[in-house]
Amino acid sequence: MFQPLSLFVGLRYVRARTQKFFVSFITWVSLVGVCVGVAALIVILSVMNGFEGELRGRLLALTAHARVIVAPPRAGALPATAPRDSRSDWDAIARTARALPEVVGAAPFVEIQALAMHSPEMLPVLLRGIDPAQEPAVTEAAQSVIEGRLADLVPGTDRVIVGSVIARLLALGVGDRMTLLVPGVGSDGAPQPRLREFTIAGLFEVGLQDHDGVLVFGDLEDVRALTADDPRAAGLRLKFRDAMQAPAGAAQLQPRLPPGFEVRDWTRDHANYFRAIRIEKTMMALILLLIVAVAAFNIVAMLVMVVTDKRTDIAILRTLGASPRRVMGVFLTQGLVIGWFGVALGVALGVSLALNVGEIVPVLERVFGFRVMNPDVYYITRIPSELQWSNVAWIGGAALLLTGLATVYPALRASRVAPAEALRYE
């Protein structure tokens, strides 16, 4: 006889063709429910990972991995004297940053808030002064997005490159002139705005509102002239070998900086985006786990009905010397085989779908004649997917745990069946 007894009998119950249609139906519903829940969870989280990666790539397209800036005053602290806007100071900081093996690029920048005006429209923008020769060394997309236009940013020419959304809202085209108003305060404390007219040298489009609808690039010297020597407008942009290691690299650089300077990596600058994505992923995971939980409840109902149907078999096993623990093992085996087989099918199906979402969705769009991501509405027109095996591992583990717990109560109930009571009317 196949040993151990609990495993042998449990597998026989799984393979046996029951005459009770409803029990068989609930068994298949439980198995399919676990499979669908696990597969859906893997696919949805993979797609959300893909969108997170797409967002990260677009955010880093024109954003450095980290910035060295003048540290803002802390809340409640006495105002501190800001460091001087000395180029020698920034050159020294750049040399310190480049000395780290993780840093592959460093470039100065100047950044100020401004109001763009092109009659009759006005729009708040972020005017960023860059060094065209050094910019490709610190931004991911400088080569593909603005490389061909960097040569137009010549000191003293007052030329700028604007985002496509800004150009559309202000009705601007290449060669048009745009007035920028930079707020300022005079020596007497009264508002003293500064105006300058710039020529549109080119447009860029990254596919993100925070870039296309906000950023205006100008030459470093032209923008510096509008800052009124404010040291807090200047900074240094850094690029690391790996964007995901930017927080660690920033922490390593911070102690080497002079007092009054601070390193901010991209995860701090865009923390709200990724915090929102993490919350969405967590809530989506909990909601989809409910599908697995419902399937687990079906396993409980199915096993309870099987225990009721097999009371005579249980009593015979007990009279032949089987212990309550062995009887419990029989139904644990039956429930675990059904539940874990559903989990295995769900993992296989979910991984297959997650790896091929990019090919499956276009086929479905052609067959049913619709667009999931309408290009007239969304910047992203495809469904990205990024399968992370850590997600697969915890999804599979959680599903195995839920289905395993679902078998405990019916198995305990089976182990407590009294042989004499079960055989009394047989």
Describe the overall structure.
The chain is α+β, with helices and mostly antiparallel strands and 426 residues long. It folds into 2 domains: 5-57 and 274-423, no CATH class; 66-269, no CATH class. Helices cover 52% and strands 16% of the residues. It has a 6-stranded mixed barrel with strand order 2-3-7-4-6-5. A hairpin with a 2-residue loop joins β2 (103-118) and β3 (121-130). α2 (21-59) crosses α12 (324-355) and α10 (271-309) packs parallel to α15. The radius of gyration is 32 Å and the shape is elongated.
Could you tell me the number of beta strands? 9
| Classification by helices and strands | alpha+beta
Give the helices and strands as they follow along the chain. Answer: HHEHEEHEHEEHEHEHEHHHHHHHH
Main beta sheet, described?
A: 6 strands, mixed, barrel
Terminus-to-terminus distance: 27 Å
Global morphology:
elongated
Total domain units: 2
Q: Can you give the mean pLDDT?
A: 79
List keywords for this structure.
426 residues, alpha+beta, 6-stranded mixed barrel, 52% helix
Summarize the helices and strands and which ones pair or pack:
Layout: H1 5-15, H2 21-59, E1 66-70, H3 87-98, E2 103-118, E3 121-130, H4 142-150, E4 159-163, H5 164-169, E5 177-182, E6 194-204, H6 209-212, E7 215-219, H7 220-224, E8 234-240, H8 246-253, E9 261-265, H9 266-269, H10 271-309, H11 311-319, H12 324-355, H13 357-368, H14 389-406, H15 408-415, H16 419-423
